[in-house]
Amino acid sequence: MFEQLEALPDDPILSLIKLFREDLSTKKVDLGAGVYQNEAGQTEVLPSVKRAEAKILEEQTTKTYEGLAGSADYNTAMQRLVFGDDHAALRDGRVATVQTTGGSGGLHVAARVLAGASPGAKVWLSEPTWPNHGPLLASAGIEFASYPYLNLATQQIDFDAMLGALAGAPAGDVVLLHGCCHNPSGADLSTEQWRALLEVVERRGLVPFIDMAYQGFAEGVAEDAYGVRLFAAKLPEVVVVTSCSKNFGLYRERVGTANIVAASTAAAVTAGSHLASNTRRIYSMPPAHGAAVVATILNDERLRAEWLEELAEMRTRINALRRDLAATLAAKTGSNRFDFVADQRGMFSLLGLSPEQVGRLRDEFHVYMVGSSRTNIAGVREANLDYLSDAIAAVL
Fold first, then answer.
1. For residue 190, what pLDDT is reported?
2. How far is CA 62 from the centre of its chain?
3. At the top level of CATH, which class does the domain 10-43+313-395 belong to?
């Protein structure tokens, strides 16, 4: 049987991680892996997470299943984090939430519910978008189209083209949006653009599908949820998927949620049953530990305050690195072509380098980034800033 299979190509990011690990150079720079790194190049466990884990180990009395929807404490805490403590959709009981295996699991589960609810609907993806969006949707049996988003020449959002494309989308189609820290571009919608987009979505009868993988990494926990909270307040139906990988540093724990904001309480209960049914058919019960950590932090006033400080430190460091990298590149290249890096948000930016230039950076300078020149800004450190900037200047 298995002799008939043909080997599939390696995942480009995972292959890049392998190459980086095998590189013996002391100058090597990792800008490819999508994880936060501190100044020492480490992805450490947050102190608030360690304290929460100690509390869980001391108090936990069972390892039995939580249920198809996962931890109720976690789901409620995440609803309040994403939508706000007093959001009308929560007060009205219009939000159905299930715990998922990371944001990827949430995207797939939500896509399967969308495919079942409206078999002919397409999901519109930004161009560019996270490369795994397409495969996750396709594996759920849903078709997709694309709308213009980033003008690579100017590194600005082509908002008029975006609105124009979505204004022609059929009613009932789904538009996938990045809640903040757009991956891979780092170019985020402003509050004014979110409001203008809301008008088009509402007028055309589209369903927003918002991927919130980096809440707190752009401007702040509440600020980064602006689009989600606006759309959930103004529209009858919204789908929101979240991840706790970045903002809690729980990458390997695979913690996320899939949320459906429905038009009524009854519709939310029905939607929740479909979310849970799909988790049963994919992985049955979600893992408990990571969700317990998040729930413990968010429901403990002292731990929550500590976590918010840690999150602010990560956010502040990334934004400072953006400014430093843009300024250093300007000095090294005598050009302002990289000024956009300072204005964008989150861990990623597209530097606008060719695949050949990216290859030279890897082969000649031991600088690793994916072929699209998507760069993890958190991989930049004060110790490698000059070396990295010199390398980029050399391949231009």
1. 98
2. 32
3. alpha beta
| Per-position b or e across 43-81, b if 16+ CB within 10 A of its CB | eeebebbebbbebeeeeeeeeeebebbbbebbbebbbeb
Q: Is residue 99 within 8 Å of 69, Cβ to Cβ?
A: yes
Provide CATH 3.90.1150.10 ranges for the chain.
10-43+313-395
Give the pLDDT confidence of 241-263 residue by residue, as tens digits: 999 999 999 999 999 999 999 99
> Hey, what amino acid is at 81?
L
Instruction: Please give the average per-residue pLDDT across 324-342, as a whole number.
Output: 97
Which pairing describes strands 150-151 and 156-157: parallel, antiparallel, or unpaired?
Answer: antiparallel
Q: Say if residue 8's pLDDT is above 90.
A: no
* CATH, domain 65-299, list 3.40.430.10, 3.40.50.300, 3.40.640.10, 3.40.50.1370: 3.40.640.10
CB 286 within 8 A of CB 258: no
* The pLDDT of residue 86 is above 90: yes
| Angle at alpha carbon of residue 233, lines to 259 and 243, rounded to 5° | 30
Residue 172 makes CB contacts below 8 A (sequence gap 6+) with 118, 120, 121, 205, 206, 207
Handedness of CA 332, 378, 81, 238 (dihedral sign): positive
Phi and psi dihedrals of 314, rounded to 5?
-65, -45
Question: What pLDDT is stored for residue 315 in this prediction?
Answer: 98
Catalytic machinery residues: 130, 211, 246
Contact indicator for 289, 296 with CB cutoff of 8 Å: no
